Amino acid sequence: MAEELLRIEDVTISYPSRGWFTRSVPAVEGVSLTLGAGQTLGVVGESGSGKTTIARAVLRLLGCQSGRIWFKDHEVTAFKRVPKWYRREVQAIFQDPTASLNPAWTIEDIIAEPIRVHESNDASLIRSRVSELLTQVGLEPEMASRRPIAFSGGQRQRIGIARALASRPSLIVCDEPVSALDVSTQSTIVNLLNDVQRETGVAYLFIGHDLALMRHVSDRLAVVHHGRLVEEGPAEQVYSAPQQAYTADLLAATPSLDPHTRRRALAGPAERKTC
Ligand SMILES: Nc1ncnc2c1ncn2[C@@H]1O[C@H](COP(=O)(O)OP(=O)(O)O)[C@@H](O)[C@H]1O
Ligand SMILES: [Mg+2]
């Protein structure tokens, strides 16, 4: 069993209500999850189910109304200011790589920034780290002088992954990192993330809505609905033998390229449990 890296304990998060008479409904309510070092916890659910809110709380972009979040032995929810070490250890990649890359910067500037902040200002060290990181994500080191506009969506997501890896994090929060990509690019990026995990031992909190795809990246899967945890368990078990009707419905609603998987997804929950 991997050493525990992240623990979310009975967390409830509400956004401020928008009007005088509207009571704010929690976006996340009583959610508890754990993630081991070097492992992937997939969080899957429909749009609006609270996935991004969980991600923002872990990144400490949001506070919690109740409950606690722990990273290693540190209580993240108790930070008054987010310490620099936490920014280094916990990185993020987002759905829209275009919006998260500064269009005025070269790829080298983008990937070098976390190295400058967290490691060193030495120009030759930075240059060699940037080349190493570009190679690691399947891009040519010669591409470092170009700007994001010169790249496709999948290549931009590779750049986002290289930037996230630059500070040598132990956790990357991946908020729908492949949802904006076409299906064939989705699988190459998922494979890349799996390779990177094998090479570096980084853990992922991997958020998505496609249960069939999430199964390929996750060691454990958590299903959320209306801000609450519906089901959590080993990925293969949640996928093949969902215990909750909501998970089975989510699976049936997931289109899949693999005809075998698709057939199973479309079968009823009882039939799926026995196959
Ligand atoms: N900034 C915000 N202000 C108010 N409500 C929000 C805000 N962001 C999200 N919400 C609400 O919180 C709930 C969960 O949203 P979110 O965490 O973005 O879900 P998901 O990522 O699963 O689509 C939704 O009902 C959404 O409308
Ligand atoms: Mg979201």
Molecular structure report:
By secondary structure, this protein is an alpha/beta fold. The protein has one domain: Rossmann fold, CATH 3.40.50. The chain has 12 helices and 10 strands. Strands 6-7-8-3-9-10 form a 6-stranded mixed β-sheet, with helices on both faces. Strand 7, helix 7 and strand 8 form a beta-alpha-beta unit. Helix 6 runs parallel beside helix 7. 39% of the residues are buried. The C terminus is likely disordered. Bound molecules: adenosine-5'-diphosphate and magnesium ion. The site of adenosine-5'-diphosphate has 10 residues, from helix 1.
SSE arrangement:
Blueprint: E1 4-14, E2 26-36, E3 40-44, H1 51-58, E4 66-71, E5 74-75, H2 84-89, E6 90-93, H3 97-100, H4 107-118, H5 123-136, H6 153-165, E7 171-175, H7 183-200, E8 203-208, H8 211-217, E9 220-225, E10 228-234, H9 235-240, H10 245-252, H11 259-266, H12 269-274
Parallel strand pairs: 3-8, 3-9, 6-7, 7-8
Antiparallel strand pairs: 1-2, 1-4, 4-5, 9-10
Helix pairs in contact: 4-5, 4-6, 5-6, 6-7
Bound molecules: adenosine-5'-diphosphate and magnesium ion.
Q: Features of this protein?
A:
275 residues, alpha/beta, binds adenosine-5'-diphosphate, Rossmann fold, binds magnesium ion
What is the CATH C-level name?
Answer: Alpha Beta
- H/E series: EEEHEEHEHHHHEHEHEEHHHH
Structural class: alpha/beta
- Would you identify the regions where 5 or more consecutive residues have pLDDT less than 50? 257-275
- Could you tell me the strand content as a percent range? 15-25%
Under CATH, the homologous superfamily reads: P-loop containing nucleotide triphosphate hydrolases
Shape: globular
Q: What gap, in angstroms, lies between the N and C termini?
A: 28 Å
- Average of the residue pLDDT scores: 90
By CATH, the architecture is named 3-Layer(aba) Sandwich
Helix percent band: 40-55%
Specify the biggest β-sheet: 6 strands, mixed
The count of strands amounts to 10
Q: Count of helices?
A: 12
Radius of gyration (Å): 19 Å
CATH topology: Rossmann fold
> How many independent structural domains?
1
Bound compounds, each kind once, are: adenosine-5'-diphosphate, magnesium ion
The main sheet orders its strands as 6-7-8-3-9-10
